[in-house]
From TrEMBL, chain A:
<dbReference type="GO" id="GO:0004693">
    <property type="term" value="F:cyclin-dependent protein serine/threonine kinase activity"/>
</dbReference>
<dbReference type="InterPro" id="IPR050108">
    <property type="entry name" value="CDK"/>
</dbReference>
<dbReference type="GO" id="GO:0051301">
    <property type="term" value="P:cell division"/>
</dbReference>
<dbReference type="GO" id="GO:0000307">
    <property type="term" value="C:cyclin-dependent protein kinase holoenzyme complex"/>
</dbReference>
<dbReference type="GO" id="GO:0005634">
    <property type="term" value="C:nucleus"/>
</dbReference>
<dbReference type="Pfam" id="PF00069">
    <property type="entry name" value="Pkinase"/>
</dbReference>
<dbReference type="GO" id="GO:0007165">
    <property type="term" value="P:signal transduction"/>
</dbReference>
<keyword id="KW-0547">Nucleotide-binding</keyword>
<dbReference type="InterPro" id="IPR000719">
    <property type="entry name" value="Prot_kinase_dom"/>
</dbReference>
From TrEMBL, chain B:
<keyword id="KW-0132">Cell division</keyword>
<comment type="subunit">
    <text>Interacts with the CDC2 protein kinase to form a serine/threonine kinase holoenzyme complex also known as maturation promoting factor (MPF). The cyclin subunit imparts substrate specificity to the complex.</text>
</comment>
<keyword id="KW-0131">Cell cycle</keyword>
<dbReference type="GO" id="GO:0005737">
    <property type="term" value="C:cytoplasm"/>
</dbReference>
<dbReference type="Pfam" id="PF00134">
    <property type="entry name" value="Cyclin_N"/>
</dbReference>
<protein>
    <recommendedName>
        <fullName>B-like cyclin</fullName>
    </recommendedName>
</protein>
<dbReference type="GO" id="GO:0051301">
    <property type="term" value="P:cell division"/>
</dbReference>
<comment type="similarity">
    <text>Belongs to the cyclin family. Cyclin D subfamily.</text>
</comment>
<dbReference type="GO" id="GO:0000307">
    <property type="term" value="C:cyclin-dependent protein kinase holoenzyme complex"/>
</dbReference>
Length: 295, 315
């Protein structure tokens, strides 16, 4: 078994715990994860969330997912070796000006995101925390990469926080916001997040940005209307506190909110942002939507 | 990211048909390689070592969800396939058992007390207490050997899918069937020969065995549903069913101290396949009726075809 320094060399620091390194003529990104701290002592070994996350990453082999190639241990540290993404891959792709110059590029990238989500869902893997910060794009080659488990080069949030349910709320679905803190995620939540990203591509700003679940739900219902038992069977028993519903609101006309979008795009967007999770389009069906004809 | 390890298909009752193949396609990645069984058959000592560690894991897991020991034993088999035979030292077996148990508990997010684990392992002898660092190092060795691919696809993953094919409407009856099949899966894992089959095949065979025992009049319908499933190889299911049948009968007879007979009539699954073929030739339809749940009684223990399934709990 080759040791870390025998297997990889030419280390070049990118950020505090992220390095570029080389083996033969190939470059990799190596991320150091320390597994010894106060919390981990009580767990007697590698924490469960690290094992679970790595187990998933090790199974994934998809062009649009940053690949985890190797895992090595050295004393109290884990070394995660990812495929290397050169400088052409820009993080936080929604801020890239070229995104707004070429409408076709938006469609291409949306398709790649949905294709990736469909791939994951087919393997019973949920993303749970998809957001633009975890997406990198190469606008020259039009290839998009989703970085998971802090694989993004500029991802600096502590891993412990990343694995918890605390995080950005803007891409959480209404059924998750209603039951904030509940661990019962499911595939429709990921599709909702893609719908929010789609909307953000079009508007150049987050679709929903309230700082709390109550405010977010209000923004959602302002745009899409307050759910009823007719539009969302079972919603009354889900929402728990009636205060989360707020006063009844009528849905806005999406065609007026998104004037740049053609009818197929409006149809897809409305289906991804369907309030009822059971009626929301699946990622598998979304990639087959007429909006992507010609992609 | 997350996944429901216990029931990855159960969360998706509206699962599109062409999404199902994924689990069937990747399940082989999470079982020992095909030559694993052959290497064990070559050595009685190896078999006894495996049984020893399996027994230790079962002791550790007796108060937990049955999926936990199943997963831990899967790790054990994959580890042995990778690392070869263990050293003949009792403490090494215990350390491996603890590590596989611990890793399975973590994958399932199951809380457990490290102190209780140590006490259980040392019950009845003056064995050494393993330091946390030792367990951690052993966990690292197992993780490395398994290449950190700890989300094993087990037979439990396929049970909801197959049960849905059976179209049992009563939730209580579905649960009885699932429980029966789960018990069979747990028992059969202790025998090496079941490891030759893929998890989906084990699940299908266990469900058929349980349904034959619990719902004999609907059994032909269930059998046809399994046979029509394009992801299942019918002949392999027959073989696996026979292995499960032998294991279950062996355990039953060992408890009652009944000698097994070498006079084996047509195996029950073969018989039903034959009758299905003849029914298709005749163009007749099998009439199914709802039956109250009732175990069949038999007094002819020597007849293989009517040996009842017995419920013996390990813990």
């Amino acid at each position: 078994m080759l040791t870390l320094r025998e297997k990889y060399y030419d280390f070049d620091q990118i950020s505090s715990k992220v390095f570029k390194c080389r083996r033969d003529d190939q470059f990799f990104t190596m991320k150091i994860v320390s597994i010894l701290n106060e919390e981990n002592q009580a767990n007697n070994g590698v924490p469960y969330w690290i094992i679970r996350e790595i187990s998933i990453l090790k199974e994934l082999d998809h062009i649009n997912i940053v690949r985890l190639i190797d895992v090595m241990t050295d004393g109290p540290d884990l070394f995660l070796v990812f495929e290397y993404l050169d400088n052409e891959f820009q993080a936080d792709f929604l801020k890239n000006p070229k995104m707004f110059m070429y409408p076709q590029m938006k469609k291409e990238f949306l398709y790649q995101i949905l294709n990736t989500v469909a791939y994951l869902h087919a393997r019973k893997i949920l993303l749970r925390d998809l957001r633009p910060e975890n997406i990198l794009v190469n606008v020259r080659t039009q290839v998009l990469k989703i970085a998971l488990f802090g694989a993004a080069r500029t991802f600096e949030a502590p891993l412990e926080a990343y694995s918890s349910s605390v995080g950005c709320l803007s891409y959480r679905s209404p059924e998750v916001l209603f039951q904030f803190g509940c661990e019962k995620y499911s595939t429709p939540n990921d599709v909702w997040a893609v719908g929010c990203i789609f909307g953000e591509m079009l508007l150049h700003r987050p679709l929903f940005s309230g700082p709390s679940d109550v405010e977010l739900l209000d923004e959602i219902f302002t745009l899409l209307g307050t759910p009823t038992e007719e539009t969302w069977p079972g919603v009354t028993s889900i929402c728990g506190t009636c205060a989360l519903m707020g006063p009844p609101q009528q849905p806005k006309d999406l065609a007026k909110e998104f004037p740049m979008l053609n009818p197929d795009g409006l149809d897809l967007l409305s289906k991804m942002l369907c309030l009822c999770p059971n009626y929301r389009i699946s990622a598998e069906d979304a990639v087959k939507h007429p909006y992507f004809k010609g992609v | 990211m997350d996944f429901d390890l216990e029931n990855p298909l159960g969360n998706f009752h509206d699962l599109p048909c062409d999404a199902v193949p994924s689990l069937f396609l990747i399940e082989s990645d999470h079982i020992p390689p095909p030559n694993y069984c052959q290497s064990f058959k070559a050595s009685d000592f190896d078999i006894s070592v495996r049984r020893d560690v399996v027994s230790l894991i079962s002791q550790l897991s007796c108060t937990f969800d049955p999926v936990l020991p199943y997963l831990a034993i899967n790790y054990l088999d994959r580890f042995l396939a990778h690392q070869g035979i263990l050293q003949p030292k009792p403490w090494a077996n215990k350390l491996l058992a603890i590590s596989c148990f611990s890793l399975a508990a973590k994958m399932l997010k199951t809380e457990y007390s490290a102190t209780d684990v140590q006490v259980l392992m040392n019950h009845g002898d003056g064995g050494a207490i393993f330091e946390a660092q030792t367990i951690q190092r052993m966990e690292g060795i197992v993780l490395g050997a398994l290449q950190w691919r700890m989300r094993s696809i087990t037979p439990f993953s396929f049970i909801p899918f197959f049960v849905n094919l059976f179209r049992l409407k009563d939730p209580a009856l579905r649960q009885v069937l699932k429980d029966g099949a789960s018990e069979i899966i747990l028992k059969s894992q202790r025998e090496i020969k079941v490891l030759e089959f893929k998890p989906s095949t084990v699940a299908a065979s266990a469900l058929l065995y349980a349904s034959h025992e619990l719902f004999p009049f609907q059994y032909p319908c269930f059998l046809r549903a399994i046979s029509d499933c394009s992801y299942i190889n019918k002949e392999t299911v027959v073989q696996c069913y026979n292995v499960i049948h032998d294991i279950t009968r062996e355990e039953y007879e060992s408890v009652l101290n009944i000698n097994s007979t070498s006079d084996t009539p047509v195996n029950v699954l073969d018989e039903h396949f034959l009758s299905l073929e003849s029914e298709k030739t005749n163009g007749t339809n099998v009439v199914t009726q709802e039956q109250d749940f009732k175990r069949r009684k038999t007094t002819d223990y020597g007849n293989n075809r009517t040996v009842p399934f017995s419920h013996f709990h390990q813990c």
